Amino acid sequence: MLSILRAVWTVFLHLFKRKVTVLYPEERPRIPPRWRGRIILSRDPDGQERCVACHLCAVACPVGCIALQAAEDEYGRRYPEFFRINFSRCIFCGFCEEACPTYAIQLTNDFEMSEYHRHNLVYEKQDLLISGTGKYPGYNFYKVAGLSIKGKDKGENENELPPVDVKGLMP
Amino acid sequence: MEDKKLVTVYIEDKPYRVRPDQSMLDACLSLGFDLPYFCWHPAMHSVGACRQCAVKQFKDENDRKGMIVMACMTPAGEGTRISIKDPEAVEFRAKVIEWLMLNHPHDCPVCDEGGECHLQDMTVMTGHAYRRTRFRKRTHRNQYLGPFVNHEMNRCIQCYRCVRFYNDYAGGRDFGVFAAHDNVYFGRQEDGVLESEFSGNLVEVCPTGVFTDRTLKMHYTRKWDLQTAPSVCVHCGLGCNTIPGERYGTLRRIRNRYNGQVNGYFICDRGRYGYEFANSATRIRRPYRITYGKAGEKIENALEEGKVLPHVKSLLQGAKGIIGIGSPRASLEANYLLKKFCGPGNFYAGFSDAEFNLVGRIISVLTGGPVKAPALREVAEADAVFVLGEDVSGTAPMLGLAIRQAVRQKPVEAVIKSGIPAWNDYAVRQAVQNDKGPFFIATSAATRIDSLAEGTFHGAPDDIARLGFAVAAAISPEAPAPDGSLPEAAAGLVPRIAARLREAKRPVIISGTGAGSRAVIEAAFNVAKSLFDSGKDAGLCYVAAECNSIGLGLMGGKSLREAVGAVRENRADTVIVLENDIFDRLSAPEAEALLSARQVISIDHLPNHTVSMAHTVLPAAVFAEGTGTFVSNEGRAQRFYRVYVPAGQVEESWRWLSEFLAASAGAKFFTVDDVQRAMAGELPAFGGVPAAAPPADFRISGLKIPRQPHRYSGRTSIHADVDVNEPKPPADPDSPLSFSMEGFDGRPPSALISRFWAPGWNSVQAVNKFQSEVGGRLRGGDPGQRLIGPAGKEKSLPYFTGIPAPFTRLEGKFLVVPLYHVFGSEKLSALSPPVSELVPSPYLALNPEDAGELGCTEGMEIRLIVEDVFFRLAARLDASIARGVAGFPLGLPGLHGITLPSWGRIGIPPGVREAAEESGEDRA
Ligand code: SF4
Ligand code: SF4
Ligand code: SF4
Ligand code: SF4
Ligand code: FES
């Protein structure tokens, strides 16, 4: 009996609290920039796909909703042949973003992705890839990693010496 | 009872009993301690180059100061006292990693080694996390090393394992270390295909991503994403254990699966890179039957699911006599069910008649003789080897590698006697220099391992056999001696071979079906028996051509030629061909006669000549898509497991046959275990087969063993493009393995090891955790069950007396003998694109003097006619071929359908010689 009264009293007190519901979609909530919403794949400052298909996001994903296949172009640059995220399984934990060594995969503050059919929540690479760098402007993986690709030969990285002359005799 | 030879060592002040003939690193790892290392390799031992395995050693229990030593260079002597956890040792190891990483290129995300990288594991183990150096990194250019191995030299940490494997262990000559100090470079002197047939092992030997699997790169998948199961190599008769890996329905790579008795740490490139035939676009994926249109054209009618059996049933009901052709590349289970279905009298072993007889002879010798068939490891430990007639480097590559180790046995034993421990690899190699133990080889032409031999003989198979008989007679007076003389080169060898074999303790005689000669096989037996009778622990190793040749031999059946007779005489009108192209086994007219039966049902996985003539074709699973048993050349039954469920209506052959049985007799076999039980009950030779691996209902704590690693990614996304509801994982009634990441995550029984992984050990080095001691047996015993063994001494077969007459040249004719190539002679691997790149183009090898008499020069087109079959080939002059003999590279594209050795005629097509002369003149 006492507990029912207490519950009624608590509800009554809420009449005087500030409303938290908004009239979405007319009124739009403010989403903080570090919100973990719809996932995108970004590009590096040169406009190339950032993802190098390392599979780290996929293995970090606790629900296993990322699947991809690595491929390599003729200049040795790795990219995902396909990249699929099943958002009907995604829990938006952000582990993939944390695991990504290239800042390719990023969570954005877009949460409006409801669908009537679950299979419409399966996003392929063309649905994920954006044209900019997203949250991290400057980083370009291939400028620091030792692999040579088109336009960047061995030894041309920020922190590299020119390739060794194997047949040289100098000490 | 404790072995008296053990000593007590102290690790962190706790006593352990260990063997004294090892280093402290071996001892620590065998005891299960995690101690980082790079340059030490269990098969190649210690050189102390990387400084990573540092530990503190103390003089005695009162010594508190101690000194830093390399565990891999510290003998496990009585009272040796070390600490792994000592803070100074820990710091030392962390610093060493930091140095090794100074120039490392920071590219794990695009490195194929990532996720199974020993360098990553050791970096994590030592705790080095942040780069402090401000200097720029040294860089290297890469090399093109052929279709198998990819090179990314920046990742090197200078551990020297690659050169030690490639040159010291595998005898390669086109690889090395270049430049000086921190510039050292590991590769070839210039870009080019690696010559060694063991180059693929660099991928597993190199602890970093310098050498990675180039075929995997083409469809790259991380180790944690591969679905794997234990398997057995199908590319020769040795039965090396492998781990195929699958992702998204295709086979991605093959890795070595350690088996202490068989392949140990290594496999050959044919086994590692031959797998891609399984992914071929031409695979048969749907059953179909052939009908003929109005114009007589062939129409393929697909048989939907559910229509296959009614169709087959109607065929079988209408049949007047059904015969089955087995196959040395199909599993025991499939061959057995075919035999059961057709009846023992209607089962024909799918060998060529010649091979049928040779395999039968080998089995009777191995079971009726006194001498054991050694496992591959025992060959590697032999102290004298005599090869008779078999080019092992072409027909059984890993046997060549084993011989390479055997040749070192005797000199190494001498070095050990002088006080240098066997594990001190550099010191041992310095002391041994180029000393070699006794090894003799007699073949038709020079082979890749001839340079190791103390004596070689090249001649016709009959002369090789006579050499063998003569050696046996020289060892034991009871053995019959050949009458008449031997060729000069052979006669000179006889006393030397006999003397060197007599000096040995564990001699091994190697022969096989490769020479196509029964006399050679019998001669090898005589030599082995003579050694056995004089009290040696001798071994007799026969090479069989295919992965289940010995299994099919044990299954028995009739010869293929009799099958032709049965069809010709209308005793049978329906032929079931199991995973076989009989155009490889019979001459074309005979094969056509056999396939002219009213109904031909072919069960196979890739199109071939037989399939193209069949009326009904059923798609068969390849090795990685099915479960079954193969019997290797030593008579070891080994289970292989389904790695993935194939697309389409592909079924294991034995399952099709079990359906046939159900359709006709009503007795159906549902699982491999059912088949094996019936087989073991019916055919005593296969009594041991069920014991080769745990049965399907085997569980650990009620759990199955997962085929997928616990980190397998994408399970809710892989199929989401097709159906967003995850499908149920396929059931597997045939094994205790599951198609899932769930299940028992510890160390399974050795026959069920799907991958080598242990916490903190993601690379293949985790194998240490699966062995009872480093480099020894797998825990619980190495997998496989021996089906055959020698007879008692009293019951043994007598010496063979059928000594052939000396080879004599025939006027205008050549004895055509088979030659073999690692890449090309075996058909399935040659269908894999990377291997096919290295298949030589067809040729005929001739002695230069014979060629001179024929008037033909190197590369000139010649005509060969053998058994009415006609070949156009390029002449290759080879001084090692005897006069009157021609070497025919059997199995290269288009070169099959004849039984060798046999006599042939060589001609030069009209116009060719003139053309050659003209072009010669032009050049002049
Ligand atoms: S972690 Fe980043 S780079 Fe790696 S596969 Fe995922 S998105 Fe691509
Ligand atoms: S070798 Fe190992 S540590 Fe180096 S880049 Fe490759 S995965 Fe990373
Ligand atoms: S290439 Fe690999 S095996 Fe060879 S020295 Fe470098 S890290 Fe060691
Ligand atoms: S030696 Fe034979 S069984 Fe072993 S890996 Fe090579 S082909 Fe396969
Ligand atoms: S493993 Fe001991 S020094 Fe390299």
Question: Helical element count of chain A?
Answer: 5
Q: If you average the pLDDT of chain B, what whole number results?
A: 93
CATH architecture descriptor text of the largest domain in chain B: 3-Layer(aba) Sandwich
N→C terminal distance of chain B:
82 Å
Count of discrete domains of chain B: 4
Helix residue percentage of chain B: 25-40%
In short:
Chain A is of the alpha+beta class and 171 residues long.
Describe the protein's topology.
The complex is a heterodimer of chains A (171) and B (924).
Chain A: H1 2-14, E1 39-41, H2 56-60, E2 66-72, E3 78-86, H3 95-99, E4 105-107, E5 122-123, H4 125-128, H5 141-144, E6 160-163
Antiparallel strand pairs in A: 1-4, 2-3, 3-5
Chain B: E1 7-11, E2 14-18, H1 24-30, E3 54-58, E4 67-70, E5 81-83, H2 87-100, H3 118-126, E6 137-139, E7 149-151, H4 161-169, E8 176-178, E9 185-187, H5 201-205, E10 211-213, H6 214-217, E11 227-228, E12 231-232, E13 241-247, E14 250-256, H7 269-273, E15 288-292, E16 298-302, H8 308-318, E17 322-325, H9 332-342, E18 347-348, H10 353-368, H11 376-380, E19 384-388, H12 392-395, H13 397-417, H14 425-432, E20 439-443, E21 455-458, H15 461-475, H16 488-503, E22 507-512, H17 518-533, E23 539-543, H18 549-555, H19 560-568, E24 574-578, H20 588-595, E25 599-604, H21 609-613, E26 616-619, E27 628-631, E28 636-640, H22 653-664, H23 672-682, E29 705-706, E30 737-738, E31 785-786, E32 814-819, H24 827-830, H25 833-836, E33 843-846, H26 848-854, E34 861-866, E35 869-877, E36 885-889, E37 902-907, H27 912-923
The structure holds iron/sulfur cluster (4 copies) and FE2/S2 (inorganic) cluster (FES).
What does this structure look like?
The complex is a heterodimer of chains A (171) and B (924). Chain A is an alpha+beta fold. Chain A has a domain at 27-137: Alpha-Beta Plaits (2-Layer Sandwich), CATH 3.30.70. Chain A has helices at residues 2-14, 56-60, 95-99, 125-128, 141-144, and strands at residues 39-41, 66-72, 78-86, 105-107, 122-123, 160-163. Chain A has a three-stranded antiparallel β-sheet. The longest helix of chain A is centred in the N-terminal third of the chain and has 13 residues, at 2-14. The model of chain A has no long low-confidence stretch (mean pLDDT 92). With 924 residues, chain B is an alpha/beta fold. Chain B has four domains: 7-100, Ubiquitin-like (UB roll); 288-355 and 551-770, Rossmann fold; 372-537, Dimethylsulfoxide Reductase, domain 2, CATH 3.40.228.10; 814-923, Beta Barrel (Barwin-like endoglucanases). Chain B has 27 helices and 37 strands. The longest helix of chain B has 21 residues, at 397-417. The radius of gyration of chain B is 29 Å and the shape is globular. The mean pLDDT of chain B is 93. Classes of the chains: A alpha+beta (171), B alpha/beta (924). Strand 6 of chain A pairs parallel with strand 6 of chain B. One iron/sulfur cluster is lined by residues 233, 235-236, 238-240, 263, 267-268, 270-271, 396-398 of chain B. One iron/sulfur cluster is lined by residues 156-162, 186, 206-208, 210 of chain B.
